[in-house]
Amino acid sequence: xxxxxxxxxxxxxxxxxxxxxxxxxxxxxxxxxxxxxxxxxxxxxxxxxxxxxxxxxxxxxxxxxxxxxxxxxxxxxxxxxxxxxxxxxxxxxxxxxxxxxxxxxxxxxxxxxxxxxxxxxxxxxxxxxxxxxxxxxxxxxxxxxxxxxxxxxxxxxxxxxxxxxxxxxxxxxxxxxxxxxxxxxxxxxxxxxxxxxxxxxxxxxxxxxxxxxxxxxxxxxxxxxxxxxxxxxxxxxxxxxxxxxxxxxxxxxxxxxxxxxxxxxxxxxxxxxxxxxxxxxxxxxxxxxxxxxxxxxxxxxxxxxxxxxxxxxxxxxxxxxxxxxxxxxxxxxxxxxxxxxxxxxxxxxxxxxxx
Length: 355
Fold this sequence. Notes:
Elements: H1 4-19, E1 35-39, H2 40-57, H3 62-83, E2 104-105, E3 113-120, E4 128-129, H4 132-137, E5 140-146, E6 156-166, E7 178-179, H5 190-214, H6 218-231, H7 236-248, H8 252-265, H9 270-282, H10 287-300, H11 305-317, H12 321-337, H13 341-354
Helix pairs in contact: 2-3, 5-6, 6-7, 7-8, 8-9, 9-10, 10-11, 11-12, 12-13
């Protein structure tokens, strides 16, 4: 089933409820709501800004200029209220160049643009239009229906989140295509759609980073993992593999920092503890610190044969013969169970050597 099918079904239900004004309403910012009321101080701020714009640009028709700006800002206010910290702030810059045909971008991915269109009229007749430039610069069109006619003195506006549409789905070839409410997708799916855009990019960057890592193209691998972290700052695997790449180019401080970030995100990430231990042991000369790291990895994964092996080596280097023998014996036992005969034989050789 196409991902749009449920949203089209929900949109059809929403349109039926519009006829009886039976809409979902939530006052809490950041939560989905089909209906939003703007009044009081918030409306006063919007009105003041729009009059400032009139004063700045001194248009021939001040009233029309005010209404045009007020209509746009009311729509943007609805979207900002519903998506909250997920998107950038409303643009209140007083500049001739406008907003560059992009009303909002995602906080974690500025390349994803959101264009908001607000219109007043009957829901079954109104159209929301978008220019070709706006289609090219934005990932999604968001449509807001204003129930009251916009004027200079109105004290309250009741606004309906009419729906959204990915710009890639706008196929009309006219200069300024327009859409009706029945062509939109249900507004409750907007956040998930934007989340999926980010998820798709993360998946692609991780794939490209892993391919570069396999080819030992560490510089590009690091770049791809860094892009993942810009989109999702708590992505444990991106930190881990970037740390692995840093490790291979001998940037050990960076590697330890990334592995430490992994542990802050996921305290049960045994490989991160193990790799920190390897760096401390082999390159920083901190054998006691390495033993602590290997021990942490073993606590998380009691069958981590390499952690037992490496801890045995570190203990042997420090002269802890008895505990080293025990670690090599444990490693040998796990290797044998896993069918790793060469590793098993090598571990047993270390036991015989120490005994």
